[in-house]
Design a protein that fits this description.
The chain is mostly helical and 256 residues long. Helices cover 71% and strands 0% of the residues. The longest helix has 44 residues.
Length: 256
């Protein structure tokens, strides 16, 4: 029987897609779905352009707000003491510029500091109602800024005192004590002590002064608090003889 050599059958040609490189396969995919890829590319381009436009707009807003704030602060700080009319004009112009920043650029980085300076300037022109409103707006809008918040509450307390609202002033100074990390708690305690003295409540005054000295011994107000404590304690030290006079004295005899 003759030996037959078997010739293997020719296999199916490999799929051309498997022989393509990764880049070539991607190009083929793009070609097959070019409309979808084009639409996606347009959306991505539009989103990128929008982000860039917003960032540019915010940057321009911040620059304009900073420029106005700089002009207002220059007017506020350069009020000539020997020219009251010019000083008053500078102050009023500064208020106008501060208001412009607060109203037109509330999202700018300098807006919170501008609002604080606006409130201070309103106090200078004796617009106490406007100053109270500005300080309260700062507290409501920028209350997360704990470093400034304590100072704003302190200023608000002073304005309430000028306005004749003692209860609100007390609330403002007490609020300083509740602000974590506030650097002016010694000032708040001192003002609370003074207010207690003014109301003829020595016990309350002593409590605030003693807390100041205990918690803030290095405060520049600690020495003044010590003087006031001694004065208050001196007023309490003499024994009250009572209506019968000094101890051991006989009561007065009625006339016969």
């Amino acid at each position: 029987m003759p030996y037959r050599i078997k010739i293997p059958a020719r296999g199916t040609p490999a799929d051309e897609a498997h022989l393509l490189s990764g880049m070539e396969r991607f190009l083929v995919l793009v070609q097959q779905h070019r409309r979808g890829f084009l639409a996606g590319a347009l959306v991505l381009f539009a989103a990128t352009a929008a982000v860039v436009a917003v960032l540019w707009y915010d940057h321009r807003q911040a620059e304009q707000a900073m420029d106005l704030h700089r002009q207002a602060t220059l007017l506020y700080l350069t009020r000539p003491a020997d020219q009251p009319v010019k000083a008053d004009q500078n102050l009023k112009q500064a208020i106008v510029l501060y208001r412009q920043v607060v109203d037109q650029y509330p999202r700018s980085p300098s807006a919170h500091l501008t609002l604080y300076h606006l409130a201070n300037a309103l106090v200078q022109v004796n617009d106490l109602g406007g100053a109270i409103e500005a300080y309260n707006k700062y507290i409501a809008t920028y209350g997360a800024n704990k470093t400034m918040l304590g100072l704003v509450y302190q200023r608000l307390g002073y304005v309430y005192l000028l306005h004749g609202d003692r209860d609100q002033a007390v609330a403002a100074f007490l609020a300083v004590l509740d602000v974590p990390g506030a650097l002016n708690k010694d000032h708040a305690l001192f003002e609370l002590g003074k207010m207690e003295e003014a109301q003829s409540r020595p016990e309350g005054a002593l409590a605030h002064y003693q807390e100041l000295m205990k918690s803030y011994p290095n405060s520049p107000l600690a020495s003044e608090a010590a003087v006031r404590i001694k004065a208050l304690e001196a007023k309490k030290s003499p024994a009250d003889p009572g209506p019968g006079g000094p101890e051991g004295a006989a009561p007065p005899q009625p006339n016969k």
